[in-house]
Every structure is written in structure tokens, then in C-alpha cells.
Amino acid sequence: MSNFSTKLFVVLALVAGAMVPLSGQKPATAPAQPPVAQDEVLAWPAPPAPARIKWVAEYRNAFDVGAKKKRSFIDRLAGKSEEVIWLQRPLTVAVDDKGVIFVGDFTLGIIAMDPANQKIWAFSSISGAALPTPTGLAVDSKLVYAASANTSQVVVFDKEGRQLSALGKADGISRPVGLAVDEARDLLIVVNGDEHAVRLYNRNLKLLKTIGGRGSEEGQFNFPSYTCIVPGVGFAVADTGNFRIQIFDFNGRFLRTFGKVGDMPGQFARPKGLAVDPDGHLYVVDGTFQNFQIFNQDGRILTFVGTGGVRRGQFQTPNGIAIGPDGGIYVADQINRRIQKFQYLREEKEAPSSNPTPQ
Predict the structure, then answer these.
(1) Burial class (CB in 10 A: 0-12, 13-18, 19+), 30
(2) pLDDT at site 83
(3) Which of 128, 221, 249, 301 is the most buried (most CB within 10 A)?
């Protein structure tokens, strides 16, 4: 781990008292820096500490990804109209190695956005009706996996949007939420909400193991929600009803847990989306605090990003989060009807001297 942990922890101590108690009318966290004008750079933590997270963009519709151009005054006067995809209620997000963003929208199904190529399309509608209430998404180099809580399905698509296979109630799936995939290990993690359990499958949907059951002991769950792969370690699970994060190895063996209910940094009110950045830091979205918190893998809080609101870097009921291999951070900002993109700024390392000191 880099000096990131130490530097951000010092900054966090200065802002830790700014969180609104859970007993208040509107639990949330205060911003990690003062409000800024919309055209200013937005970064965390606040100066004088070096920035580690920077706000980059928001994606709400075809205009934001460059797939549509706004109509001219003459076109509007002539009454010309065109269909434009607008996110309605994004619940979850995943990003592949080509930078294509897959959004699970409560109303629209799965929407794919490709800002680099200025494209947007209704991904899950290619195979027929849009997949209802996609609560969880995961992607690898070839496949897209989606969980639908209301229909108790886990569906596998190819990258062109064609449905290949699925699990359902007959297979023991009941209100699935989060998904995570490790292509190299041929492993698919499914958080099975009504079972208060996590199921391990291979990518051909063969069940390998089920772990958990309702409870508060180590390895048990109370309404778990999201999951993510922790490279070199295993996977993490947001044990939402127990206000904690649990970490397991790739075989489902319990390793450790951190977090508890509270209104201070490092504590949780409604932990949801999970992701890991290129340096192994764990990100946890909290739907009540309207932010995401960043931890090292031992569960020590480093900093948090966000507060309640509609401006850049603010959230209204954030849910899912995904981090690309380049450190791009994508957050499903549900009520604000957008995906917000941030960038993880890796600490620069000093280059070795070309003129070594003489002995």
C-alpha cells in the first residue's frame, strides 16, 4: 500500500465530526471540501493534502455520451423530435475493459453507454423485453451478467446483448442483488437476498457452493446486497442489515469483517455498492450517508467522497459502484438519474536517479 492511507487518514480526522447523526431528520455526510463553482476542479481530499479522487463527468442521456446533438432552434421551431435515451433510476453499474458502461436501470432495463465511441443503446432489449429491475451487473471480456430481484433471475448475455443462459426460482434464486465475476478463476459470485446467502457458481452457472444463512455471526448475513472481487484475496460482501463488510477467500472461507452501525467515518447506515481500485483500496457506497467511503483492506477508513445534493460530487440515494482498470470510478446516482464518473489519482513515485551518488 502507498502513503495514500496515512495522508488521507490525517485529512479525514479534520472532517470526521461533520457527519449528521443517524437520529437526525436527514442523515448524510458533510462534503470533504467547501462548495465550489461548477466550472472548478472538484477533488478529494481537500487541500493541502494531495488529491486522490477527482470528479470527471456525468452521464444521464445520449447527449452526455455524444450519441445525440441538441436540436437547433430551427428544428425545435419546426417541431422536429427524436427519441433520446435518458436514465430514469440507475441502480447498478459495471464497466468493461474497453470502457463501455453497463447501467442497470429500474425502469429501462440494461443500458449500455460507450462515451469513447459516442454510442448508447438499450442493451437488454436486444433479446426481447428489457430485463426488469436489474439490481446487479458484472462483466468480463466476453459476457455480461445481470441479476433481476423482482423476477428472481440471473441472466447471462454476450457482449452484443443476446441472452445465452439464466438461473431462476427453480434453481433456488430468490431476489438476487449483487454480482461479481472473476474470469481467470471461472467464478461468478451471486448475492441471493432472500436466502441471506452468497452462492458461488462457475461461469457456466454450475453451483459450486453456498455460504451464509441469516444471522450476525461471522460468515452469516442479514439482507446482504452487493459484492466485488478483491484481487489476490477473494471477494467482499456488503452485509447491509448487519452494517458491515465481510471478506472471504475465493473458496468462500471467511477471512475478516469490519464496520458497524453509526454516524462516524468508517461506520455505516446503509452499505451498498462495493468496488476495489487498482491499488487495492475498497470503496463502499452508503445510500443513507449519500457518499462512498474508501478503506484499506484491513478496514481502516481513509476518506469519503460526497454529500447529499444534486451538484457534481453530490448524491441522492447512490447505489452501485464500479471501478475500471484505469481507475475510473462510476457511481449509480439513483435519484439524480445519472452515473457520475470520478478518477482515482495514483500517487506518483519518484523515478530512480540517473546519476547515482558516488561511493
Answers:
(1) middle
(2) 81
(3) 221
